[in-house]
Amino acid sequence: MNNTNHFAEIELLRLIVMANEPKYIEQLEVEWFDWYNAKIVINAWKDNVKTLDIMEFTEHLKKKNLHLSNDDVLDIFREPSSIKSSIPSCIATIKKKYRQRSLNQKLHDLQQVVYSSSPDELEVDIVNYLKSRDFKDDFIYQKVSSNFEGIGEHLLKIGGESRPEFDEILPLRGTVITIASESGQHKTNQGLDILIRYILNNPGEKAILFSKEMSFFECQARVIGSKLKISPKELIRGKHDLKELGKKFKEEFKVIDDNLIIIDPQQIQQASDIASILVNTEAKVWVLDFLQYMAMKSNTSEKFNQVASVIEMASFCKDIAQATESFGVLIAQVRKKSEGRITIFPRLDDIEWAGFIRQISHSVGMCFWPYAHNNKLLNDWYVISWQKVRNGDLFSEMAEVTAKYCSFAYPYPAAKLALKKSEIQAYFRM
Question: In what order do the strands lie in the sheet containing 327-333?
Fold first, then answer.
């Protein structure tokens, strides 16, 4: 049973039983809950709120012919609370997640309206959609209705790109995932994109990039460039006034500027440095760029064994995620080349230590920018193939990448992909 993603819901049910406080049940709405078992429990409690005795509750379920999706689920009521939390704080967390799920769905539907509408009908279609879906209480209504021409920019600024499958993974506390590819496939940009998405969807929460490959200045240039649509290379080469652009970035993307922490390579020499920084900042989502380089730099032995060092470093990262109840993203370099295969699409087995990384990672995504291999293909088509997902189905995501600005938008427009469908199928033999 995968309870990690429903921690607050489980904790709330447990606390209500432990405190024997049926009065709280009247405050709860079933639609706030995402976990199937929680919905069953809340409904049953509302039918029989006189007692929270587990045995009587179980008999009530049987009489109503209600079945929980796991036979061991009632054990959660018998376990002690694992953290110092309160019923009101759990309710607040659950309501916040419910509002976020609701808003994400509205944003996803709105994006589909934008993609399917013609330029002449865009404004009318958006207005009709906003009215039909009761958007008026959401801040997105003011954001979008005030500027139809800039609809795409508004969606990007508030984190409205649709990644429904990936959002089921992010963030699973106490776990790590791995993103891997060959060089030049935008792995670091993917890591930054994950952090920025998390910050935009969880205002006030910190996220950290531990960069062992690039300097603070290089990472900062990528963040600013991706949002202000300015080439990070030009920023690094001094072709723009970084001070003025930094000021503009703070004004337009204050939530990112306040909550994205970039750690310079000199600040992390070993895994314990990562743990220390996470504890001090209380950040719950972090990216390590990249795994092999960190392993190499932290190894002081005269006889350096890369595979053994990488495995040890990855184990440390998994332990750190569990100890700090955080979500870690490990960026890894694929060293094996895929030339000579029927398809050059990357596979998990291209990682030399694939067996171990599959074991410690909740999910493993292989990144691929086809244009880097064949410049006749779409230069903005990007694929993340999730080839290992614990307790879930494998899936692939298609993003629209703007390589010049190191930015991504989801999903990739189906109409654009259809234009090159025959070439893509022929080249990759899908």
Answer: 260-263, 207-211, 285-289, 327-333, 175-181, 363-368, 381-389, 395-402, 407-409
Spell out the SS3 assignment of 328-397: EEEEEECCCCCCCCCCCCCCHHHCCCHHHHHHHCCEEEEEECHHHCCCCCCCCEEEEEEEEECCCCCEEE
SS (H, E, C) 171-184: CCCCEEEEEEECCC
Architecture of the domain whose range is 164-428: 3-Layer(aba) Sandwich (3.40)
pLDDT, tens only, 70-102: 545 555 565 555 445 688 888 888 887 787 777
> Taking a C-beta distance cutoff of 8 angstroms, is the pair 109, 129 a contact?
yes
Q: Domain map of the chain by residue range?
A: 4-85, 106-157, 164-428
Highest averaged pLDDT of the listed ranges 97-101, 133-137, 302-306: 97-101
Which two tokens mark 249?
A: 């970035």
Pairing of strands 285-289, 327-333: parallel
Tell me the pLDDT band of 193, cut-offs 50, 70 and 90.
very high
Rounded-to-integer distance, Cα 106 and Cα 121, Å:
20
Q: Roughly what angle, to the nearest 10 degrees, separates helices 7-19 and 36-47?
A: 30
Q: How far apart are the C-alpha atoms of 302 and 299, rounded to whole Å?
A: 9
Q: How far apart are the first and last CA of the chain?
A: 34
Per-residue pLDDT tens digits for 9-57: 877 877 877 777 777 888 888 888 887 778 877 887 777 655 556 666 6
